[in-house]
Specification:
Layout (H helix, E strand, L loop, with lengths): L1 H31 L6 H19 L2 H24 L7 H23 L15 E5 L2 E4 H23 L1 H11 L1 H6 L4 H23 L9 H16 L4 H26 L5 H26 L12
Antiparallel strand pairs: 1-2
Helix pairs in contact: 1-5, 1-6, 1-8, 1-9, 1-10, 2-3, 2-4, 2-8, 2-9, 3-8, 5-6, 6-8, 9-10, 9-11, 10-11
Length: 306
């Protein structure tokens, strides 16, 4: 039971980290019909900004706010200078253009921060463990990450579902042309959503920096999982991104925890551990294939999405 609770919390923590990246990207896809492969690079830049500003300021909160602010401004600049000319063009042009941005940011990081990876220590006040039962302790930082992720998810839900700006965002995500026809400034909405997505990616990079090695290309792997989540949840659906992220996070965490025990019945311990990680990843893509076959629009598509 202790293992189940611990791995479930690990799955939720991973899910919320993925959701922060996926939420902005799914709205960009839904509103702009834009294939942005460079979104993972904003996650990477957020992590590098955090690894720079937190030690510089001596405060995780102040350094984190600076990292999020810089990532958001970078997102606005990328959208205005590089991506806006690609709006309305074919997906192949968008893929090639944003893939070029991925290469640019990787080389930019190598030029500014060097090729070696960086680490960021967990804040001192959050470095301990908290008891969740007689035989279970869990890192305070990971619990705070879960709590903060839920707060951000709740705030994003209220923004999208309960405000006038959210109504315009949902209308544009459901039918961009119709939203423009009834008077919505779709270009302004697109810019706002892209900036919001960049801020969320920066926040995810900030949270991930103490858990992962901050290194070149770290956004590429999370981008792949993010795209899987968007397809499973449904383009343009924040609710779908949240629920799909939970599904993916739990499959990954519980698979890595329990598959080794099952595989040890037929394999050596080393082979079982290696195979378990691979099978956990494969299970996610099997789910993706099943969703594409049964419900191509996603499990929880935005209302009115086609």
């Amino acid at each position: 039971m202790s293992l189940l609770i611990e791995q479930t919390l690990n799955g939720v923590q991973l899910a919320l980290l993925l959701f922060l990246v996926a939420a902005g990207l799914t709205l960009v896809f839904g509103i702009m019909d834009f294939m942005n492969l460079s979104h993972g690079s904003l996650f990477m830049m957020g992590a590098y900004f955090a690894a720079t500003f937190v030690p510089m300021t001596g405060s995780f909160v102040l350094g984190g706010l600076l990292a999020i602010m810089c990532t958001t401004l970078l997102g606005f600049a990328v959208e205005a200078i590089w991506l806006r000319p690609l709006f309305g063009r074919g997906h192949l042009d968008q893929v090639l253009g944003t893939f070029g941005l991925v290469l640019f940011f990787n080389d930019f990081v190598r030029l500014v921060w060097g090729a070696a990876g960086r680490t960021l220590a967990v804040p001192q006040m959050l470095a301990g463990q908290v008891s969740l039962g007689p035989s279970l302790t869990y890192p305070v930082y990971r619990l705070v990450l879960i709590g903060a992720g839920l707060v951000v998810a709740g705030g994003l839900y209220l923004l999208v579902q309960r405000t006038k700006a959210g109504m315009v965002i949902r209308a544009a995500a459901s039918d961009r042309d119709m939203a423009g026809a009834i008077g919505a400034d779709v270009t302004l909405v697109s810019t706002f959503v892209f900036g919001l997505g960049a801020a969320l990616a920066g926040l995810a990079g900030l949270f991930a920096a103490p858990l992962l090695t901050v290194q070149i290309g770290m956004g590429d792997n999370i981008l792949i999982l993010t795209l899987v989540i968007i397809v499973i949840g449904g383009l343009g659906s924040v609710r779908g991104a949240f629920l799909a992220a939970l599904i993916v996070g739990l499959i990954d965490a519980l698979g890595r925890a329990y598959l080794p025990e099952l595989l040890r019945l037929v394999l050596s311990p080393v082979a079982a551990s290696t195979a378990a990680g691979a099978l956990s990843s494969v299970a996610i893509y099997i789910l993706l294939a099943a969703v594409l076959l049964v419900k191509p629009q996603g499990l929880f598509p935005a209302r009115g999405a086609r």
